[in-house]
Amino acid sequence: xxxxxxxxxxxxxxxxxxxxxxxxxxxxxxxxxxxxxxxxxxxxxxxxxxxxxxxxxxxxxxxxxxxxxxxxxxxxxxxxxxxxxxxxxxxxxxxxxxxxxxxxxxxxxxxxxxxxxxxxxxxxxxxxxxxxxxxxxxxxxxxxxxxxxxxxxxxxxxxxxxxxxxxxxxxxxxxxxxxxxxxxxxxxxxxxxxxxxxxxxxxxxxxxxxxxxxxxxxxxxxxxxxxxxxxxxxxxxxxxxxxxxxxxxxxxxxxxxxxxxxxxxxxxxxxxxxxxxxxxxxxxxxxxxxxxxxxxx
Length: 297
Ligand code: SF4
Prior knowledge:
Residues 24-270 form the PD-(D/E)XK endonuclease-like domain. One of its GO terms (biological process) is DNA repair. InterPro entries: PDDEXK-like_dom_sf, PDDEXK_AddAB-type, Restrct_endonuc-II-like. Pfam families: PDDEXK_1. By secondary structure, the protein is of the alpha+beta class. It has a domain at 53-132. The protein has helices at residues 26-34, 36-44, 53-68, 78-95, 107-126, 180-202, 226-249; strands at residues 5-7, 138-146, 152-162, 168-174, 208-213, 218-222, 293-296. The strands form 2 sheets. A 5-stranded mixed β-sheet has the order 2-3-4-5-6, sandwiched between helices. Strands 1-7 form a two-stranded antiparallel ribbon. The structure holds iron/sulfur cluster. Iron/sulfur cluster binds next to helix 2.
């Protein structure tokens, strides 16, 4: 795997996922850029990966922030957010019972510490903005757009805010502990992806892309312009072309880097004396849609 991702609970399992056209998501595009073989393992072979506590904590924190905005504005206070943590974790566990296995024999204490760390991230959130002061337009928004070349872009946006003037702000919460310099480039790629899709869907270039790093209580704001997003669109088309080329031949090459330390598939990687499973062929429509672990964090 790459840097910690958030495991999105809303994603259906493979068996009940409706058949959809292959699509490009920010995470899968990022995987291919990082390492074509990693892309293959995740999107084509669909090899399972073991979630980390940080990933699952990110899922819980995202769920709490989503629930928080469902409350009346006056109730969106730190204490209420803290109260929402346990129910959110129970919901996540119900949907993915295997997450309970994250904790060892000392389960209670370990889990309590982990839940405390989720509450600390929420404290970090309140250090960045006051959610009583606005109502988001959307939370956990699925966005899709087909480019003229036929590339289908698909992703989930944490939050979209629309000002009375019509200006759009795209917000993404980052809950991982990875150093900022490692995640920033990937995060901006993801945000430009969302900005492009929203621009194409709504005809308005988002005024601001806002990344909120909850662990270190810092926010990064970025304003894209039309020319930049148009160039980014061409970049995505080129990435998809390259994916399709590799998909036809099965030639997904490893690209070793420091990020290999975070890859679940090292044992199968030729860069580490491993042997990949036989290439299963380019997947049928639907199989390259977003998986449960598809967001940079
Ligand atoms: S271990 Fe291999 S497959 Fe994984 S990221 Fe590194 S080069 Fe790619």
